[in-house]
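Objective 1.3, modelling of assemblies. Example input:
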Amino acid sequence: MKKLPDQIIRISIIFTALILFTIVIRVFIIPEDLKEKGIFRTSAIKQELAKEIHYAGSEICVDCHEEQYDAKHNGYHKELSCEVCHGPSYEHSEEPDDATPEAPRKRKFCPVCHTYNLSRPTGFPQINPFAHNPLEPCINCHEPHDPRPLETPKECAGCHRSIATTLAVSPHVKLECITCHNTPEDHKINPRIVRPGKPTESKFCGKCHADGSSNREAPKIDISVHGENGEKYLCWQCHYPHLPEVD
Amino acid sequence: MLAVPLSTPTGGRLMNRLNFVKLLSKSAIILVTGNFFSTVLKGSSDTAAKAYTHMKRYALGIQIDKCIGCANCVKACKIENNVPRQPFYFRTWVERYIIKKNDEVVVECKEGGAGKLSTELEEREILRSFFVPKLCNHCDNPPCAQVCPVGATFKTEEGIVLVDDDRCIGCSYCIQACPYGARYMHPEKKTADKCTLCYHRIKQGLLPACVEVCPTQARVFGDLESNASPLTRLKRMKKIHVLKPELNTKPKVFYTDLDGEVK
Amino acid sequence: MNIASAHEGLTKLLEQVSGFIYPNEIEVHWSILIVVYPYLTGLVAGAFILASLVKVFNVTALKPTYRLALLTALAFLLIAPLPLLLHLGHPLRSWQIFFTPNFSSAMAMFGFVYAWYLMVVLLLEIWFDYRADLVNWGQTAKFPLNWFYRILSLFSKDVSPQAIAFDNKAVKFITLLGIPSAFILHGYVGFLFGSIKANPWWSSVLIPIVFLFSAIVSGIALVMLLYMVITPSRGKPIDMKCLDKVASFLLYAAIVDFSLEILDITHRLYESEESIKIITEMVVNKLFISLVVLQLLIGMVVPLGILIATKLANFNQELRKLLYFLAAILIQIGIFSTRWNVVLGGQMFSKSFRGLISYRMEMFGQEGFLMALTLLVVPFFILALLIKLLPPWGSTETLE
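Predicted structure (tokens):
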């Protein structure tokens, strides 16, 4: 066998030393948990689990505050957990005397959720804080654990603000909501379960808009032939009833 | 159960081509690292054990048509998780979308949604408007965990993506790789930080803080593997969409009524 | 940097945001240091490719630049990891990248690519090439330098013709290995960016190749500059045959690089994907100077014109030198702008595609302008030291 060149031997020594050095560090010096394979890293999980809890969760509150719970449980605020308004209360749940959760009583608190905003879903109760009993703290009239309107709002706009705003500039502004929406009384108590009715056929609009209707102001059409195909479309598929646009 | 996650190593249940390529590359890596036998042996016993235990897979649903944009979630998250209070670091935030009649889209998110909303918009110009809460999507195929050079970001068995503070070197690569902007560099810890889905809470049976304080139940937390969880119910009853599905990150934050303008 | 000052800085940045960005996106995480990093590795790869032209492709005219190119590559490679290290939140944990890497991470491969390139390619090639000289200097130099050379030569003494022949063979073999390695070194840096699917500005298969060719361009231009500065300062004449040859290779590489860049831009505009609107806005509002003016016009079109002109027209030596010098300088500006545009451009638009973010460069501080400048200058000092210790012209000049 031919002898290995001198250079190769020298270089090999250096490289062997380097590789050995790496292996020694990797095998003997690096702590085991850093070499742990796979998706589960024990030390990090432990650390994560040890983090402090600030929000107690609403279940524990019932143990002491049954009265408030019962009041809330049947009212509009039933979906709210206590800490939405009372703030983080874990400490209080552990040592009730050491920490008192906040109990917001100022007027500026409730409007965080209940100020009218056009991006909010329709049906969510919203007010204009500048017009709605200015400066009066909300809790003077509304019990926060079972908030009810003092009297059921006469105006549907109490909840359906964005529709009311649209309607205000519409030719339909003079119509009452119940003209088109047959609304059971229970809708005011269980708004999401008991829903108002809606017209189901074009004939309904025809009461005012059909040729020969007794309504003098409404524009008239022959509803049997109006539209691209008289029977195919219902009126509100082209004309938004709260703001009927006419070309 | 139809929803077999592609990337959880439950092994052999759904052996499509993608998995095959993954397996190939994994075995190549194992061969290179030189502990082929130990990994293969350990791996097979793990799989067997898993088949008998019900492993939870936590995720979140968000009902856009219920969000009122109150930003209670944003504030509670900062408190629960000691997120820096400055308005530049968020584990969750709420965006407000306004789509005008001329199709122009205005999005705002002042102080993560907790800031004052602008009101100067003319209501008649607006076609539709809504709020969109956002957070880490806890992707099943997380690009952040893929790129982390030291494996500090990883996916737990429950499918939650976490950051190991002791391991993170603070290179920001994961922040670049996250398509959703869900990560930030913690100004004190100098490590990447993000939503943990309140891992310390849910493991004790509590709800994540943001879900706890949501006044309208716009946020729905649950176990995807359980048929009785509120989240599974939501997924059964509603049309569901996720953010940026085209990137194949397989997000696990499920939106109902998600508008196409939301990115 | 404490929280208060960070807060103040970010508040100022918030005012410069246009449109909508995700709230966490206000911070630009990869600063000028990460611009410097690919610039430095690019110079390394480019210089090495120039050196390998001599050994592998037997372009003998380039011989005067061979060792200079190798030492340049080494000097810049030694500094290349520093900008990465300095930008880390926890630099002291960086050893994890080498010892407990996450194999699915492109960045984790840095350790392997760097170690391979430094140890197996560059140092080994330099060692074999200089070995005979080192043995020689180990005997002739004064104490303690003679010991320094003896250690460097690993105490080898064999300068027999067979041993020298083996050295030459080894150099050739390593260079062969080195070309793909240099490609990997810089292609890999491109891949770091190109593989980020979340970012349409980066996510492109072309990026590694564009990086590679811009690297070759910048490396060749740098060695050309160094050769033109160092040779007269030693009182020696510039070898015009060599310089013309370097300029030719620079021209070829620049043509390929320019074509790739244009292809990239055309491809983006023609495909016109969802992100095109915000990317166009960014280029017009944030990157106009650095991309259109510096990178494309001054850094590429003008030097291309100059190099083509020197090829076509029959300029005299002095004018040619002047033009080469000018072209090489412009190319450096252009390639640095390329790095700037890739790295910072990728962070100046929101991933919501609805807004633009500003980057405000610090002057001082760990990620400031001065630090970046230092990192760009230090390699030249290292190179000066290397040239002093290992004169590149040691053997070649005596041979001539």
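DSSP finds eight helices and eleven strands in chain B.
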